[in-house]
Design a protein that fits this description.
The chain is an alpha/beta fold. The chain contains 16 helices and 18 strands.
Length: 463
């Protein structure tokens, strides 16, 4: 079981999550992965930013907020000696963070390795709080730092697991605890290199931690607890009549996540897909909701469109050769190398046949690094005017329609484009055909919501 930040948000939420864990543990061996309390990772990063900028007062202010937040939670959960002992543990963990923040304050920079060690503190605090509360309620619970279990490469900030080494450590460290009937509470988001240097797993890190451990422990199921009912046919803030999807496939979940839906990150699903471990997405705030099950193949089979999702924090980058001397294919190849060097993900890629120009959609957060790498790669062509200046359009959004078996639905693309045009939304770029699962469409940002509603209605996805 994995609990997200909102499910660990305060003393009341931790009590609720603990009750779920204790109930599961009474039925079968259970391992629990927890995120930091809601907003804590942002607070940790803000503290480090103040430190890097030499703002000692800002560092002190953030440290006081962090300490007060966890002290308040501890007081809300525990009493007597248990409270005193747990508060001492929290103080010790916070002292490690203070040491790193003070070092960054002195250096005036944030080494990636130090950042990874620092921001994993949030999960260490929440795991100790939950384990202490469970013990106070009679459960045999132990908090374990995932740094002792998950072995990764040395790509700080976005590490990848070394599964064979992780399996060995998990069997040695976790299996004895589970065999003795203990409820293990592990930190999400973090791991360590073979030689023990702390790392973090990047975007969706706590979910990824859960899938890694589910895989190496040969779990029967993985349950992801959050503040939503499961996976929906669209964002309910945009579409009023969304439908809860009872089942979706791993591939559908991966495509939805890649295109902006709050579903498991595609990288998270890989260890589960290999072993066909089913995943439940459930709401820890409302246990009456059935949730969504992610499986290799749904009972209904491939039925066409299942959901529509969108993103607005994106940028459309266009490369346009100014001279026929340049090979468009080579320009595209070098561009993709630059994108890889910037560690960016391409959401949509579209090209023309005659002018050899092309565009690709990326996340706005990745734009500065992408532009830097592209300008490095094409410095000569840009300087001599063989390539027009690189254009980045931020006034765009992505709409993606996802579902197994869409290739078999004749006229579907035409219906979708017609539905969008009826709302007077102009389509800027399209990516279709490379995947039978997804039709991706780029529109102006102010037309994204209208396009989502139009597609959702046209495909009959609503409740």
């Amino acid at each position: 079981m994995k609990f997200g930040g909102t499910s660990m948000g305060d003393a009341a939420r931790i009590r609720s999550a603990s009750k779920i864990c204790a109930g599961a543990q009474s039925q079968r061996p259970t391992a629990v992965i927890v995120s930091a309390m809601s907003k804590v990772t942002d607070m940790l990063l803000d503290t480090l930013r103040h430190a890097e900028g030499g703002d000692a007062a800002g560092v002190e202010m953030m440290l006081a907020k962090l300490s007060a937040k966890h002290r308040e939670c501890c007081e809300g959960l525990l009493e007597g000696p248990a409270r005193t002992e747990t508060q001492e543990t929290l103080n010790s963990i916070l002292a490690e963070f203070v040491r790193i923040a003070q070092g960054i304050l002195m250096l005036g920079e944030r080494p990636p390795r130090s950042v990874d060690e620092a921001i994993a503190v949030g999960e260490r605090l929440s795991s100790n709080l939950m384990a202490a509360y469970l013990r106070s309620q009679g459960s045999d619970a132990v908090a374990i730092n995932a740094r002792e279990v998950i072995v990764t490469d040395a790509v700080f900030g976005n590490a990848s697991p070394l599964m064979d080494q992780t399996r060995e450590k998990a069997i040695n460290r976790l299996k004895p605890e589970l065999d003795h009937g203990r409820l293990v509470i592990l930190t999400g988001f973090n791991g360590a290199t073979m030689d023990g240097r702390p790392t973090t797993l990047g975007r969706g890190g706590s979910d990824f931690s859960a899938s890694i451990l589910a895989s190496v422990l040969d779990a029967e199921e993985l349950w992801i607890w959050s503040d939503v009912d499961g996976i929906l046919s669209a964002d309910p803030r945009i579409v009023p009549n969304v439908r809860l999807l009872e089942e979706i496939t791993y591939r559908e979940a991966a495509e939805l996540a890649y295109n902006g839906a709050k579903v498991l990150h595609p990288r998270t699903l890989v260890p589960l897909m290999e072993k066909e471990i089913p995943v439940w997405s459930k709401n820890s705030f409302d246990l009456s909701k059935p949730g969504t099950k992610i499986v290799p193949i749904t009972k209904e089979g491939p039925i066409g469109p299942r959901a529509v999702t969108s993103m607005t924090n994106v940028a459309l980058v266009t490369l346009d050769p100014a001279s026929a001397v340049l090979s468009g294919t080579r320009i595209m190849a070098r561009s993709l190398e630059a994108l890889a060097a910037a560690n960016a993900e391409v959401l949509v890629l579209s090209s023309s046949s005659y002018r050899q120009n092309f565009c690709f959609l990326i996340r706005q957060s990745e734009l500065p690094a992408v532009i830097e790498k592209l300008e490095e790669a094409f410095s000569l062509e840009l300087a001599h005017g063989y390539l027009h200046p690189i254009d980045a359009d931020l006034d765009v959004g992505l709409v993606a329609i996802v579902g197994e078996g869409m290739k078999g639905h004749a006229g579907l693309a035409g219906r979708i484009f017609t539905a969008i045009s009826r709302e007077e939304v102009n389509i800027i770029a399209i990516a279709q055909g490379s995947s039978e699962l997804t039709i991706a469409i780029v529109v102006r940002k102010d037309g994204v919501d209208k396009a989502v509603r139009a597609v959702h209605d046209e495909c009959g996805l609503g409740a």
